[in-house]
Amino acid sequence: VPMVAPGNVQVHVINSTLAKVNWDPVPLKTVRGHLQGYKVYYWKVQSLSRRSRRHVEKKILTFRGNKTFGMLPGLEPYSSYKLNVRVVNGKGEGPASPDKVFKTPEGVPSSPSFLKITNPTLDSLTLEWGSPTHPNGVLTSYTLKFQPINNTHELGPLVEIRIPANESSLILKNLNYSTRYKFYFNAQTSVGSGSQITEEAVTIMDE
């Protein structure tokens, strides 16, 4: 098997899900056989928004021939990763380079995990929601937009409300009675807005 590890391993984080790794090629005489390529082992150490440690799954990408760089796609935003590089010949792989730590920046969150509308009265509705399963960063706020829908399914004026990130419910007041409303709800990090979930509900007709 090869004798030495690739040197001068550098990681350049391109965005919240993609990084580029570079390395110096090993001297050919240390390959001790036919140079097949380089393998990059990488794994997520932890999410920076959650302290949960789970089973670490190592991923491996193989870059054929005498390449000296490779792209690592599909990373999770706002996470800490480690990687190392090894050279491969027909017999197997050589020793690993020292582990390199890198962090991905924040991304936009996934949609809130649920939006539930309860307690309809003549002029109010209560909204409850769950935070995104994948915050992909530090949540800064939620945005709620809603509008009435009339009997011919035409949409009325859109109202927008910004809600602090630590809230999980809201009572909407001063609504029209016996009216159907459509709601659009999403979460934000400093990077931007995540995908929204929609829901509809009706205020009651009379007490």
From TrEMBL:
Q: Where are the transmembrane segments?
A: none
What keywords tag this UniProt record?
Disulfide bond, Immunoglobulin domain, Repeat
* Top-level taxonomic group: Eukaryota
Which Gene Ontology cellular component terms are annotated?
neuron projection
Q: Name one Pfam family in it.
A: fn3
Residue span, Fibronectin type-III domain: 5-107, 111-207
Matches recorded under PANTHER family: CTX-RELATED TYPE I TRANSMEMBRANE PROTEIN, NEURAL CELL ADHESION MOLECULE L1-LIKE PROTEIN
- Would you tell me the protein name for this molecule? NRCAM protein
Q: What is the lineage of its organism?
A: Eukaryota, Metazoa, Chordata, Craniata, Vertebrata
